[in-house]
Design a protein that fits this description.
Two copies of one chain form a homodimer. Chain A has about 475 residues and is of the alpha/beta class. Chain A has 15 helices and 18 strands. The longest helix of chain A has 22 residues.
Chain lengths: ~475, ~475
């Protein structure tokens, strides 16, 4: 676990944690304690540092000692996670201050986002008290912190191993969409934070932290409302100059803005302003969650090795190749014909010749000689090596490894996919030409995770791959004048 | 099986079929005979009419009598499916003419689409011979005919029961994308035809047939090149005036057009011209295959009952609802707040109240009282009935029935989905308000098929549903001046 001297760093490395308001009733998964205690136990925080629960009705919950109040906990507490109703929050803040707590995360909704003047005032009062005492607040109305390696989490079944992607989100649901969605594709996180109303700590605080954090190489985020526009701009500029940053904005229409206002009390602001802000700072604005997931997958795989917009497409032929070519071209990539000499070379050793080696290259070859590493390793490797060395190939998009697998079991498919991924990773490493794999059903076991570890992205469709890769290429061109990343 | 007196009708109702060039080697699925014989046997043509095979090396294949040539078949033959190499096609045409065959489908590629002058001339000669003799050609370079009910097919595992959708495709791969893709969603077909090079029978012939065919209510198609523009325009106008028609165009970019030219020898033409042609005639132009699938699903479910663009969205809350509202609004739908009186009514019986009944309506309600028919039937029905009767609800989009099903088995999920579908279908029938179900993983067993039979569409994402529904609404507005469908 890499530490550094940013003022927020201690929040991500608490030396003792208490979960206040743990549940005495079994939750969704049949366990007592509620989602936060369960997620933290699953991540193993208690194996590293003291973990406490607070609820006057219990003395122990799932092996965790439970106390009537924060003040009753015998040892020091750095971080408190609160699940208690909003009405009790102010008193809890007082107790936490008295206890010397460094940070308080409040899950509970029902303060400023309601728009009720007295609840807005209450939230303001809580923030003022905490700040005066040097205690920081995460939330309220949010899921809080995910710090793999340290053992903090707010969701079950997220990776224990830390990674290089920082995730921030004003929404808990979209935090989980990013953590699960990117996790399935093999991305791993340095830290994750869901910050809800942003009463104290806000987007700009976390962007500033992510810029300084040596563990973070990439940043993804979901923002409903920009609070403190000037600080946000400055933090985003600092961050996006040094680390690829992808932001999704909620409330970009008036219907969405109304929903955002109900959700986190955010004033969504104009999408034009937000887009301009991203363009100015070199950050990406992802228009949809799927775009964010696709872009993050492509960027973490290829940002450093992408070379140009000329794609050689190797996969199904016929009408499928026609539509695939259209999609690539519509997104601003190119599908140039392979030079005549390269086509000749391919025809020399691929038994079924024809226009299908032009680009798109038909990998099915009448089923008798399909290009498929698990069918004919030598032939397939030779074809790919020939193609990646063509001067017209900046990048390969391929459905090889996916199209022949319909009738097999998940285990066989996963095994074949892994073997295929290893071959592509080796060719990509030797040639420096990025290879993007396309597979209809993305969840061939953990094949996508395996692919990402090998530096290859497994994408769900030609169109989604094309859109994300085109975004990456455009961004590289726009950034040509900015300093290079480390 | 409905017959009519269109000149092409006999082609779809052959009284005897011969498959020429059946394979002596086991194919993909381990069976002798090749894909066409296997697909037809699976559909059961041989139970209705005489089925023959032709290959001089065998006297029987999978129970089908096999002869050295078409002329050796003892009985009459109406339709011949040819898998022999292009070089033998001209002789086969002569034999078929001598035998009195009505239609010949040639699978084999390698004629005009190669661009080689002598092969173009050969194709022209074949067409001239066939026409002079009154025999029609399907192809070459295509998959031919799918006629459920009659027993003709070119693919395994497609429905045996006929339906009301006519499918035409210049590409075999895209024919299968439509048949499988729409089949999984419960749509069923009157006829399907993959016509490849369109040497004799072309798009306009099939459009003309579909307009006249009483079994056909909707038409989907994939076109690479418009042959005979004037006839195409006139046939499409006639068809789209009476039946909703959705066309996907391949080769809409120069890279795609090059691929289309290699594939079927098509001159793809300008996309602007094709779009104008669709607009003029009242047909849809689907920009991508996914759009065609989504639109066909929505159109066959709601074309006759859709009322307006005001959507009430019932599902997950928070940031998910924010992004969903944005997507609906971006596609030109609206998410208006429910009237205060309706919100009051909902708050009256939904235990956890708040802004979440405004629209979007949060169906999760803190997990204790989720809106879910299989959790609390009465509460859920009352909530939906209240919402569909709001004057602000033209249509409901809902994720209810999907979001609580993550941890269950496929069987349990399918059972719950079917029960939920039945509830929604009943509410839709009673109220006349279309209910669009959104479910992340579309393949909950056969739930999508069940939904379509009940008149409800199960869509893979809010965004895809919004895009398709918005297209439908726009088309209804554009068509306001055209005659109503039957």
């Amino acid at each position: 676990v890499l530490r550094h001297d940013h003022p927020l760093d201690p929040i991500f490395h608490p030396r003792a944690v208490a979960v206040v308001g743990v549940s005495t009733r079994p939750s969704f998964d049949g366990q007592l304690g509620g989602i936060f205690l369960n997620a933290i136990l699953e991540q193993g925080y208690q194996e590293r540092h003291p973990l406490y629960a607070v609820n006057p009705k219990m003395t122990e919950v799932r092996g965790v000692p439970c106390y009537p109040s924060v003040l009753d906990i015998p040892g020091p507490v750095d971080h408190v996670i609160s699940q208690i109703p909003a009405a009790g929050l102010e008193r809890l803040v007082d107790e936490c201050i008295a206890k010397g707590v460094r940070s308080l995360h409040s899950f509970t909704a029902g303060l400023a986002e309601t728009g009720e003047p007295e609840l807005v005032a209450e939230q303001d009062r809580i923030v003022a008290k905490a700040r005066a005492a040097g205690m920081r607040l995460v939330g309220p109305n949010c899921m809080g912190l995910y710090v793999p390696g340290v053992g903090l989490s707010f969701m079950p079944r997220v990776a224990h191993e830390p990674g290089n992607v920082f995730m921030l989100s004003q929404s808990g649901a979209n935090a989980s969409a990013m953590l699960y969605g990117l996790g399935r594709r093999g991305l791993r996180f340095s830290k994750g934070v869901s910050y809800g109303n942003g009463a104290d700590l806000r987007a700009h605080d976390f962007l500033d932290y992510a810029a300084a954090d040596p563990q973070t190489e990439y940043v993804v985020g979901y923002i409903e409302g920009v609070q403190d526009g000037r600080k946000f701009l400055s933090a985003l500029r600092k961050l996006a100059t040094v680390k690829p940053t992808i932001l999704l904005k909620g409330g970009i229409t008036s219907d969405g803005a109304r929903a955002a206002n109900s959700h986190t009390g955010s004033l969504a602001g104009s999408i034009e302003v937000f887009e301009a802000l991203c363009r100015q700072t070199g950050a990406w604005h992802a228009p949809r969650m799927d775009d964010l997931l696709d872009l993050a997958t492509v960027v973490t795989s290829y940002a450093r090795i992408a070379r140009g917009r000329n794609v050689t497409l190797i996969g199904a032929g016929g009408g499928t190749a026609v539509l695939a070519s259209d999609q690539l071209a519509l997104h601003g990539l190119r599908v140039p014909p392979l030079p005549e000499a390269v086509q000749e070379e391919l025809r020399g050793f691929i038994p079924v010749a024809g226009t299908s080696v032009r680009n798109p290259v038909d990998a099915t070859f009448g089923r008798d000689h399909p290009l498929d590493f698990t069918h004919d390793r030598e032939l397939t490797e030779r074809a790919f090596e020939t193609i990646v060395h063509s001067p017209t190939t900046d990048m390969v998009f391929t459905t090889v490894g996916g199209s022949f697998l319909r009738d097999e079991t998940v285990e066989t498919r996963e095994h074949r996919m892994r073997a295929t991924i290893d071959e592509f990773a080796a060719i990509q490493r030797r040639s420096g030409v990025p290879i993007v794999m396309i597979h209809e059903e993305q969840r061939v076991g953990n094949a996508a995770v395996h692919a990402h570890r090998r530096g290859v992205a497994l994408m769900p469709s030609i169109e989604r791959a094309a859109r994300a890769v085109a975004e990456l290429m455009e961004w590289r061109e726009v950034r040509a004048g900015l300093p290079a990343f480390a």
